[in-house]
Here is the input.
Amino acid sequence: MKSVLQVLRSLDEKLTEWGRILEGKTVRFHPSLVGPVLFLAIGILGFVVMPSQVKIQEGNATTARTFPTLMLLIIIVCSVILLAREVLNIIRGQEQNVVILDLLTEVKALLLLVMLLLYTLLIPVLGFILTSMLFGFAMLVFFRIRKWSYYLIVTLAALGIGLLFQVVLNVRLP
Here is the structure.
């Protein structure tokens, strides 16, 4: 069975390998086109999902679907207008705003978001103290902090905050 240090070294090597692969790679897109397309898709999805989510009583002029339908129609119409305007600008040859994203930076941000989501999901299961310690350790590993004293600080901080709220302030933590 692998020790914790071997697992951490293996993870560190994988992160380094992924970093080398993604280094310098970028994605270019036109935000003036992406926004309208995204909201057009959301509006259409809203119409597709609404019948199963919002029940109505037959015979009424105004139902529970009236306001959401109006909002979705506004979203779709505005999206189509913006999209048509941007397509006309492209046809006319007008200069378009281009955003360039660095893939390595975006993947790191996505990993941080996933770790935060896991932290949120694990609090009710493992409790505040243990989950906070694990999240703190994960953050230290992610940022490649090797000083053992930082891990001790995370442990003591999670224990201290958890016990302060539970024992001193009498606040029940998840």
